[in-house]
Write a structure and sequence with these properties.
The protein is of the alpha+beta class. The protein contains five helices and four strands; from the N terminus they run H-H-E-H-E-H-E-H-E.
């Protein structure tokens, strides 16, 4: 299937060249912005603490209060149904994006102090 422009051998119009150039510039700009966000953005690292089967919402709150106040550590807010009977089944999450290695070690030590209600923990994210 051929087009009339291809058959006649005409060059692209000035308007078509400007539109193609503008589209290319927009694509290049989008790629640069996304790349800088990925490379220069903060580390997305979260410590996920799984509670034991018999842990309650009060146990989760105690862990958050004890370990979430450490320097460089922030508690990730619970999402979903706020009912304590429902939330008590979910893990506690701590944001480690700005924590140093010493602060991460302090968090794991704090979590280990609650080992009677903690089933386990692991880090999720960039590292």
């Amino acid at each position: 299937m051929s087009t009339q422009l291809a058959d006649e051998g005409r060059d692209l119009s000035r308007r078509a060249k400007i539109l193609i150039g503008a589209g290319g510039a927009i694509v290049l700009f989008g790629m640069l912005v996304a790349g800088f966000n990925i490379l220069l953005g903060p580390t997305k690292l979260v410590e996920v603490v799984t509670m034991t089967q018999d842990a309650t919402q009060a146990d989760r709150v105690a862990l958050k209060e004890a370990c979430g106040a450490l320097p460089g550590i922030t508690v990730v807010a619970d999402q979903g149904n706020p009912d304590p009977d429902i939330q008590g089944r979910f893990p506690v999450r701590f944001d480690l994006g700005h924590a140093t290695t010493a602060q991460r070690i302090a968090l794991e030590s704090c979590i280990n102090q609650h080992r009677d209600k903690v089933r386990g923990f692991l880090a999720e994210g960039d590292n």
